[in-house]
């Protein structure tokens, strides 16, 4: 670069006096930065495919999964009216919510049941309160009971209230109705339903529910509104509207029919929504049901995280679960303890092997290395199952011990389906992850150091402990981190040989992912596990220093 | 207007829904992915259902996927990703109810989808109560029951024949294996703790009843190996690791009849459960049409009876029972000689109480 001589060139007008400038008159600093930036960009472009790949296939899905631990939109999305009504309800007084909440619940639940979303909400809430699942499933089946009261009376008054076309004419926009009447299946897409002008003002509830029905019939079911009779929910809404509103000024289509109904509704038999829901299932008069719905109505919840630490949400704030339901604290502690045990045994067993590998003549060391790597190339499941054969009561080790007379045939050792089995099998499986970093660090320690120590009068032990060992610590650090982090998330081996006392938190995560479908709880447990690992990593960095970790 | 926006956003669906109606016999997909459990069970399905079907329709290729154990989670993931790669999934009834609740399995009309029975009964009558969910197409009745090592029965004592023998460590010392979940175990424990059969679920609803069941299980806890895969108990029995253990009756059948192990069946208080098909929601019209055609064939009277030739599970259709081969009948859980005292898995109870009782059970196990 000729920039070094730039100082001699007369300063250009944007450079301040005394500043170094490049040949093109820019300040040297800026020019250098520019060149570096270009280089950085080029480097970034080179790794961009990998970065994108990692981002798309690893970071994004994990972030999405972990985000589920707080997501809870399903309650307010499925029951928008009821949850809005509940926001004014005080759960601590012991009173049930008022009629308007029951009304909202009925509308919400009816639409959700038609779209088959209510059972999904039921299973969500069942994680928090036993019985919600069947409450929602069974309520979904008998929701028509309330609407039928009004539907029958409207039908008795005028048969047209049970016909699709008069309804479509009443509620739909005139242009839309014409298009719809002209439409045939061969035309392809149906004309989208549009409400008649002013209908939202005149009959607000009816307009809303009919529109919801129209969307459902046209989009979800692909049915024509001229053939499909509306839900009985729409009749219920109409009854409420006619009771509340004055329709005497209405002169649009079906005005006669509407006015006749308006005149008759005051004489209709009616049922309150509360009584109606009570008749469907008396659990709807249960205070705790409403409390649960209210507690879980916000879009985001800390409920899953509380569950993950053996607590639960109550109206008085978080509380510990009863003693006989606590499990996650125990499992987290056990996972930590056993991972430490496994890491410790890996160090104890791996250190001498790595030392031998590093100090034996090349030929023997290579043979030994293959022996270390051989299990590495064998399927994990095969190795775990092999341990089962070895350790079980009728297994190889017990047979040998009995044959040698060391153990009585009647009381063979229990070495599997407990913590011992998990630690043995996992130590074996993770051992190469300890030996390899140790080996590569030990190879860089010159043997002459030990000889020098001894020639200066150190005993074997002092020479090892004061000279050799400190130099191998970075290998222990690297191996320990690898083994510990791998074992903390281990799943398959504890599942097979762990029995009940040797299982890890990951086994519960797997259960919630694949069996109970409680993905929120699984995500919360996973997030905690991730946080613990990152915390330990941070602590390690503070105490030992991550720079001291050497993988080779 | 808000709903109009929704309409436009989802108008693509309208086309799809419209297309479903247009589908006729001629435009069926030529390939099908069927999900099952693998092993002897899946091969019985292949021999009884898919091989004859492919012989009739040579253009169809069938791929089998052995993922039924993870079907619920995988279907949910597929549904969220909007890409359903499975056409027909074999699941147990409890999973089918869960999938139906989650909207992941398609509801169907038995009269429309299923063939009428050979004896003239309608499909709905032929399957009867076994259609436990609007989405579920039952195939077989199996049971979870006990097997024991005949050579480990103590001298001078009769072979175990009552469910409560499992809890009697004095008379029948030795290890047992039980499934690592509360379902079935809690019921058996209560039965043997003096609760009448008809009261079991009423008792189990209460916290005291759950504690009572756990306390009864606690009396044998030290002697139990808990299994999570159906193959565990047969293996443990074959190795002599356990004296008796629960598993699916078909697994015991293969240990006894095919592998000639010294194992006996104990049918008392066997728990009936169902296995069957569900069709995932959101299949394209051509694949749906193919799958419906296949299901109609694969669940007719003859096919269900055929399956019983290969595995000792009872066909779900009443009309298939007379067609089951004579030598298989004695191994069927539904055979009168075996079905003296039976339990039917209570689906609605467990759908509600599963999360709660499971938390207690797992907490109890871990201590």
Describe the structure.
The complex is a heterodimer of chains A (552) and B (367). Helices cover 65% and strands 1% of the residues of chain A. Chain A is built from 26 helices and 2 strands. Chain A has a two-stranded antiparallel ribbon. In chain A, strand 1 and strand 2 (319-320) form a beta hairpin. Mean pLDDT of chain A is 90; it is low at 1-12. Chain B is of the alpha/beta class and 367 residues long. In chain B, strands 1, 2, 3, 4, 5, 6, 7, 8, 9 and 10 form a 10-stranded mixed β-sheet that branches. The longest helix of chain B has 20 residues, at 347-366. The radius of gyration of chain B is 22 Å and the shape is globular. Chain B starts with a helix and ends with a helix.
Secondary structure: elements and pairs:
The complex is a heterodimer of chains A (552) and B (367).
Chain A: H1 28-67, H2 73-78, H3 80-86, H4 99-114, H5 118-126, H6 132-142, H7 144-157, H8 164-171, H9 174-182, H10 199-202, H11 204-220, H12 232-244, H13 255-265, H14 273-280, H15 287-295, H16 303-308, E1 311-312, E2 319-320, H17 328-359, H18 362-373, H19 380-391, H20 396-404, H21 419-443, H22 447-455, H23 460-488, H24 492-497, H25 505-514, H26 519-543
Antiparallel strand pairs in A: 1-2
Helix pairs in contact in A: 3-4, 5-6, 7-12, 11-12, 17-18, 17-21, 17-23, 19-21, 21-23, 22-23, 25-26
Chain B: H1 2-9, H2 11-22, E1 31-35, H3 39-56, E2 61-65, H4 71-81, E3 88-92, H5 93-101, H6 110-113, H7 123-127, E4 137-149, E5 176-179, H8 185-191, H9 200-204, H10 207-218, E6 224-227, H11 232-239, E7 244-248, H12 249-258, E8 263-278, H13 285-298, H14 301-310, E9 314-315, H15 326-329, E10 342-344, H16 347-366
Parallel strand pairs in B: 1-2, 1-3, 5-6, 5-7, 8-10
Antiparallel strand pairs in B: 3-8, 4-7, 4-8, 4-9
